[in-house]
Amino acid sequence: MEKLKIGMVGGSRATSYGSVFSNNPKTEVVALCEVDEEKLAENGKSFELPDSALYTSYEDLLNADIDVVVLGTPIPLHADQVVKALEAKKHVLSEVTAADTVENCSKIVDAVRKAKTKYMLAENCVFMDFSLQWKKWIDAGRIGTPFYAEADYVHEIRHLVEDKWRANRAPMHYCSHSLGPLLYWMDDYVVRATASGKHHSLTPETDGNIDVQVALFETAKGATIKVLRSSVALREPGLCTYSIMGDKGFLESGRHGYDNIGLRYFDGLDDKKQETRIAVSASDIEAPPEARLGGHGTSEYYLAQDFLNAIEFDLTPTLDVVRAMDMTVPGLIAHEAAMKGGVWMDVPRITD
Ligand SMILES: NC(=O)c1ccc[n+]([C@@H]2O[C@H](COP(=O)([O-])OP(=O)(O)OC[C@H]3O[C@@H](n4cnc5c(N)ncnc54)[C@H](O)[C@@H]3O)[C@@H](O)[C@H]2O)c1
């Protein structure tokens, strides 16, 4: 197979994936689109791209000789850019979340249905080493049937929510790093949501500056999920923690960053009287050094491999449009529920 030609859009997260694709024998990074000319030149230099491969216009990039668009732009731009890329017959790897409104999510779903090329959501937490390991344990029945799961994600980025697009991104709109892995492990989706959280300690009083939101979700299989989110709470280091319980045991990560010590109990395997500690890490220690170039352990490396396999062997990517929407829409609805005072709302499965 000829090398797939990668076009990066957005000189930050797209270039993180660019570093991964530059070191993959099946791909070559051939173009970059970035509206900030300084960033364009800087990133063009580090990827050793000629000036002719640097674009400030997205439409011009889509007319270039590329096979894949790696989308690392602000979330409100995703729907329009994904639709245009699929219409131009490009494969799309899109940063999280899928889109900023349910209506925009539906536009992506329609475009994916018509397209012959692949679309995948780059929810990297799903591909962290511990997540892939937990998925194997859960699928093998080690914790039995999951009935409860929770995830907290507190990442203080006050300087970014002040004036950029994140000013309007409610905490729960950015739910895929938390909800995503839980649904992936449970092989489930959300049917109802409620949430609390509309208070601001900080100004301006935009949705992005809401102190914290906590959502409860009910899933199609009858499980309950709790997610806590904040972009402004001063919890240092950042909080990113996961826990899942089933009728035969549980798995729980520690509360410090992505690399920590967690706990598990597997009925019939572990001693009830003794804590069973597990290493929880974003990185696969056996992976080659280039596997860490994406920024979050080895997650981007394995995610990129999944996406490339889907293209090469015409498979459904692990985070296809169905999972992309399952990991995005509940957060949009939960925020709406919080604004209505914490009512329960049905979550439409827009891919049905
Ligand atoms: N998976 C992760 O761990 C992770 C981490 C951070 C951000 N993200 C996601 O990555 C995406 C980008 O986030 P960010 O923090 O880099 O945001 P950002 O605001 O820094 O924007 C990214 C870049 O896109 C450029 N850009 C804006 N409009 C453009 C256009 N029309 N064409 C080309 N370039 C354009 C900006 O100039 C900027 O350099 C979002 O979807 C965000 O949620 C994911």
Shape: globular
Show unreliable segments: none
How would you characterize the largest beta sheet? 9 strands, mixed
| C-alpha termini separation | 34 Å
Name the structural class: alpha/beta
- Could you tell me the number of beta strands? 15
Lateral strand order in the biggest sheet: 14-13-12-11-7-10-9-8-15
Strand content bin: 15-25%
Q: How many helical elements?
A: 11
Q: List bound small molecules.
A: nicotinamide-adenine-dinucleotide
Provide the helix percentage. 25-40%
Q: Rounded to an integer, what's the Rg over CA atoms?
A: 20 Å
Please tell me the total number of domains.
2
- The CATH class assignment of the largest domain is Alpha Beta
- Looking at CATH, the homologous superfamily of the largest domain is Dihydrodipicolinate Reductase, domain 2
Topology order in helix (H) and strand (E) letters: EHEHEHEHEHEHEHHEEEEEEEHHHE
CATH architecture grouping of the largest domain: 2-Layer Sandwich
